[in-house]
Structure to design on (325 residues):
């Protein structure tokens, strides 16, 4: 597995190890953390290799030993991409090509993690896997993540045509324990951190933009089902909950679940992302294909998932003194 020390990756490692698999994790620890996989590494059913998906000979060697590949390594999070667009685009395209090329040589079953970001600012919600993609201009760096993930998908489907058993999953705003407190790609992590610190919870714009937050255990279950369903090969699947919530309402909910007295403050997009940012106004998955082909539905209610997330963050975020108080 690439990116196994990351937020979703580490939960996937846990699930695979619990199911009796042995997992080799390749991660460059750019945003992932070794401590996320401490427990599985202790069981000796998981092995950690510190390295990059840009290292082709390392990728070739590890893929040669594997009987399935989960590819999660990526520069993730819109705010991260906006701040480091060159490295992000290279990692997300070249890294994936390296993994797919290595898997193709032995036709190793492979899962590529993609993103709901590929739909861009399409207004055709709920987004069907075969729906249109709508992106803004190329000098808006936000869209480079969508473009890179779409290029990854193009590569995956091109390899599928040549005989690689590959499946693509598009994640919708996964959240849960181990969310990085620096908030990479996660408004949930940012709001929880702000709620703990008693700082204003910063809602961008009017907060009418919506998302479907998906508890990470559901995300992982959908991922494992996708790799293990032969009929899924050569296709893309939305892996997301269908409960839609506005960011303004999310702020109220997080504040409530965290028991915080923070003020909820509307701030400009520009204050966070800099000039020239474009947001996705509404992001909702069409969940039919995942249900029919994979037998997958996200089950965790948002309030319940947030409760577990807040509990984990309370115990693990650095500002423990504030969190505990
Ligand atoms: N957002 C916000 N306040 C923050 C961080 C994010 O209002 O402090 C908004 C962001 O502008 C977007 C939504 O929350 O509309 C989800 O952002 P996130 O970075 O979690 O992921 P995205 O869905 O944009 O990939």
């Amino acid at each position: 597995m690439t990116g196994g020390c990351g937020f979703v990756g580490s939960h996937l490692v846990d699930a695979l190890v619990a199911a009796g698999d042995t997992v080799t994790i390749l991660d460059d620890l750019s945003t992932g953390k070794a401590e996320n996989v401490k427990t599985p590494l202790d069981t000796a059913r998981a092995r950690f290799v510190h390295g990059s998906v840009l290292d082709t000979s390392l990728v070739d060697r590890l893929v040669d030993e594997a009987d399935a590949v989960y590819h999660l390594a990526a520069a993730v999070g819109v705010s991260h991409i906006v701040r480091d667009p060159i490295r992000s685009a290279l990692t997300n395209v070249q890294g994936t090509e390296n993994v797919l090329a290595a898997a193709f040589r032995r036709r190793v079953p492979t899962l590529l993690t993609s993103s709901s970001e590929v739909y861009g600012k399409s207004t055709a919600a709920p987004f069907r896997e075969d729906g249109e993609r709508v992106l803004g201009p190329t000098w808006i760096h936000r869209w480079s993540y969508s473009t890179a993930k779409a290029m990854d998908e193009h590569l995956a489907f091109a390899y599928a045509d040549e005989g690689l058993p590959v499946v693509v999953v598009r994640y919708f705003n996964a959240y849960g324990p181990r969310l990085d407190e620096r908030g990479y790609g996660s408004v949930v992590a940012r709001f929880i951190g702000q709620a703990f610190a008693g700082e204003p919870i910063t809602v961008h714009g009017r907060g009418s933009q919506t998302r479907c937050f998906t508890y990470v255990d559901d995300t992982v279950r959908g991922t494992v089902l996708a790799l293990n369903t032969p009929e899924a090969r050569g296709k893309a699947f939305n892996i997301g909950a269908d409960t839609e919530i506005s960011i303004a309402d999310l702020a109220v909910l997080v504040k409530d679940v965290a028991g915080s007295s923070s003020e909820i403050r509307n701030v400009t997009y520009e204050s966070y992302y800099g000039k020239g940012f474009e947001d996705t106004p509404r992001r909702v998955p069409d969940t039919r294909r995942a249900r029919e082909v994979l037998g997958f539905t996200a089950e965790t209610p948002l309030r319940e998932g947030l409760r577990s997330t807040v509990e984990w963050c309370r115990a693990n975020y650095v500002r423990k003194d504030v969190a505990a108080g």
Notes: The pocket of uridine-5'-diphosphate is lined by residues 78, 117, 173, 185-187, 190, 202-204, 209, 211, 247, 279 (CB under 6 Å). The radius of gyration is 19 Å. Residues 320-325 have pLDDT under 50 and may be disordered. The chain is about 45% helix and 15% strand.
